Amino acid sequence: MKSYKEVEQYVKSKLSEKRFYHSKCVEEKCIELAKIYNVDEEKAKLVGISHDIAKEMPKEEKIKFAQENNIEIDEIEAKSQGLMHAKIGAKICEIEFGFTKDMTNAIASHTTGKPHMDTLAKILYISDAISKDREFKDVETFHEIAIKNLDEAVLQMLNKSIEICIEEEKSIQLDTIKARNEYYSK
Ligand SMILES: [Fe+2]
Ligand SMILES: [Fe+2]
Prior knowledge:
By secondary structure, the chain is an all-alpha fold. It has one domain (4-184): Hypothetical protein af1432, CATH 1.10.3210.10. Helices cover 71% and strands 0% of the residues. The protein contains eleven helices and no strands. The chain has helices at 4-14, 17-36, 41-50, 59-68, 75-79, 81-97, 101-108, 119-130, 139-148, 150-167, 174-184. α3 (41-50) crosses α8 (119-130), α8 (119-130) crosses α10 and α10 (150-167) packs across α11 (174-184). The longest helix has 20 residues, at 17-36. The chain binds fe (ii) ion (2 copies). One fe (ii) ion binds next to α2.
């Protein structure tokens, strides 16, 4: 696996200053939560910095990359190209950095959530939503919940993202619904 410095440099070369700053903020939050929930801090740091690596890839390039690497893109992802960056980013991290399966799984599920997420994936999912560069009104409340009960924070964040999809008249990813039902029934 590539070192943190190498990964950071690669990520920096692929992202705008703003998105790179966001990635550093997510990395910081991932480390904070990894400490609390006894997750490998190095892995948390690496998935944090690299989770949005494909976010600024041009749409055509994303589609080409997905085809060449047998990445399944469903109808909703194809329409909203923002969603594609998670799966594509996971694959890039596997190829370029040699990330382990748990790390690429975490990156693949960071936008929508997924059923059966492990702790690393939950940490990334939440950190991406509540990193210090985020400015929605409940961010502090979510932070308080996340440091006490990660599953509860994930459930509330899934609910919130579903509400946003409804408000903004967007399709809801099936993975989000499945994940939400999994946590809801816990
Ligand atoms: Fe993202
Ligand atoms: Fe992000």
